[in-house]
Amino acid sequence: MLLPHLCTDAQGHSVLDEIELKMMGPGGASAQDGVYFQRIQAAQQDVVHWNIGHALPGHFVDFKPMVASTLIAVFSGQMNVTVSNGEERQLARGDMMLAQDFTGQGHMTRFLGQEACNYLLITMPGGFK
After folding, report:
1. Which of 60, 90, 97, 126 is packed most tightly, with the most Cβ within 10 A?
2. Residue spans per domain, the chain
3. pLDDT tens column, 46-83
4. CATH code for 2-19+45-124?
């Protein structure tokens, strides 16, 4: 499963790309085995902490880097993430993103739409396993 990935390039700019979330089927079967997946399961993941956020449309968070690998999952509403090279990614209900832009200018977040954005932030040491 591919997830949007926010990271820093060699020049210190925040950029958007994608990262593979490894999946396993029941009994440890891989996706290549053609097994029907009853659930998506990554490796056991260490978590430092988690937060549930709530932001109203129009709320704005200026450019800043992340302090640790953080998975963002949007429950409702919309958020727009802009990286330092100007590229944007809009996240809405059901979307996830892994944020790992630890250095440089970081990214900016703007909350859009007609309803509040409710989201989950899961901070993980070292990113996905």
Report:
1. 97
2. 2-19+45-124
3. 899 999 999 999 999 999 999 999 999 999 999 999 99
4. 2.60.120.10
Residue 1 has pLDDT above 80, yes or no: no
Tens-digit pLDDT profile for residues 20-49: 877 666 666 665 655 555 555 556 788 999
Bridge partners of residue 92, in order along the sequence: 78
CB-based contact 5:17 (threshold 8 Å): yes
- In a 13 Å sphere around the CA of 93, the CA atoms on its Cβ side amount to 6
Measured distance CA(2)–CA(27) in Å, rounded: 22
Those residues whose C-beta lies under 8 Å from the C-beta of residue 111, and which sit 6 or more positions away, are 55, 56, 57, 58, 59, 60, 77, 78, 79, 80, 117
pTM of the predicted protein model:
0.84
- CA terminus-to-terminus distance, the chain: 14
What is the distance between the alpha carbons of residues 7 and 19, in angstroms, rounded to a whole number? 10
